[in-house]
Amino acid sequence: MLEATPLERIAADVTDLRASFDAGKTLPLEARKAVLRQIRAMMVDGEPELAEALATDLHKPPHETYLTEIGLVLAEVQTHLDYLDDWSARSYKWTSLACFPGRSYTVPEPYGVACIIGTWNYPIHVILLPLVGAISAGNCALVRLPADGSVDTTTAVLAKLFAKHLDPGVVRFAKGGLDVSKTVLAQRFDFIFCTGGPAIGKAVARAAAEHLTPVVLELGGKSPAIVDATADVVVAARRIAWGAFINAGQTCVRPDHVFVDAKIGDTFVGALRAAVVALFGESPEMSPDYGRVANTTQFFKMKALIEKEKRFLVHGGATAAAARFVAPALFNYKTDDAAFRQSALMEDEIFGPLLPIVYFSAGVEPVLEAIRARPKPLALYVFSTHAPTVDRFVTRTSSGSVVVNDCVVQMGNLNLPFGGVGGSGQGAYHGRTSFRTFSHSKAVLQKYFWLDLPQRYMPHTASAKWLTRRAIAPVPRAVVRRTVAVVVVAAVAWLSQRPKVAAFFAARDA
């Protein structure tokens, strides 16, 4: 049983973190880099123990642990170490005529004390990737470690590594059950980052609303894959099989269901079955590269779905309760679109090793309509070599991301933002986007004391109205025209203060 954090300590931890932040401990860039190096050392030192823990909890292969967890964190840390100086620099902006003379810039500043709430399916990277962004931006952070009983071994190892490697003045953690979660959410944070399902997302949003705390929610959803007749069937099948069944299908961006052109439907399903066997063998329960569902709740959910839809089952589906084993399962609805839409597999995000497939034959418009009719997915995968088809899915659907001719691999490109839209989440992170997410972009306008135009102030004479209306009028973006406008207004303003010109304006006002 995982030892829970004493409830009274949670409030004290937040108070201590806020004291560290208020003292400016995380403002120097070198101080932030020092904690980033601590995270890196923690990953390198803890890799063997973390890999063993995930093998115990999820039957996760050690190489998969590095590929989908530790390697991503190390890459994220290095990216922030490489670019933090550039990202944290002032960004100068054009100063409008209404604010002339002066200079304008934005400066990224940390929010303060951030709360990071992780989940069990990828318990290392969904905690540490946002933590890297929080630290890089200059925040202190309280981490809520996963605690639903699915990855207790891994959580215990993470807690030990946090205590050993990370500066407690900058990072602290909480672990335990529902009472710990409620106590954490009762605290006042300056930013909350949460990965989980819709239920936890709503609970976090409600708690954040009490203090008007900004939040990022990474929630998942039913991510579709579309395979048209121009795709390379064998490669598409292999990539979809890999994306759908890595981590036993417990991946928020996995292809949740597949639309395939009826012209190649049977060929594709045959290639998909062959790909699953090539990946995990004829007996996937014996494969060292195939995981397990996280807990008995997930196991019985998968088992019930298989039973409900077994008349469409064309491959796999074997189960073993004692080992929480569910074999990769393919369900082929062929052209029975009504049965597909009403399927139990389409009611909610599957989040397991089950993959429904349906054929389309009247062009891609019905597929587009079907995708738009559902909540916006976290990802969309289109397999096609026909550029107009690809463009239609990119421009006429809304999703957190789109990948063409592959799936799930967008997680490994830290130059792209990762996040959902609508029901699949709000906000994004990874790489520079993480730094921006955990930073407030503060606007700074620095004025000078010279050229304090009297036309700005009351009373609003006719000449003042004439001049100020032209000063605030919209100016085209063309650099030459903008420069001319600045010179002209500045010249008029200067001339307006010359005695003869002032007398002229005074006469007009009279």
Describe this structure in words.
The protein is an alpha/beta fold. The model has no long low-confidence stretch (mean pLDDT 94). It is built from 17 helices and 20 strands. The chain has helices at 7-22, 29-58, 62-87, 125-136, 152-165, 178-186, 198-210, 233-245, 265-280, 296-308, 337-341, 365-373, 387-396, 431-437, 462-472, 479-495, 499-509, and strands spanning 91-93, 102-110, 113-117, 140-144, 171-174, 191-195, 215-218, 223-227, 255-261, 313-315, 319-320, 325-326, 329-332, 354-360, 379-383, 401-404, 418-419, 425-426, 428-429, 439-447. The chain starts with 6 loop residues before the first helix and ends with a helix. The chain folds into three domains: 7-220 and 430-441, Aldehyde Dehydrogenase, Chain A, domain 1 (3-Layer(aba) Sandwich), CATH 3.40.605.10; 224-416, Aldehyde Dehydrogenase, Chain A, domain 2, CATH 3.40.309; 454-500, no CATH class. Helix 2 runs antiparallel to helix 4 (125-136). The strands form five sheets. A seven-stranded mixed beta sheet has the order 10-13-14-9-8-15-16, sandwiched between helices.
CATH class of the largest domain: Alpha Beta
The third-level CATH topology of the largest domain is: Aldehyde Dehydrogenase, Chain A, domain 1
Q: How many structural domains does the protein architecture include?
A: 3
Choose one word for the global shape: globular
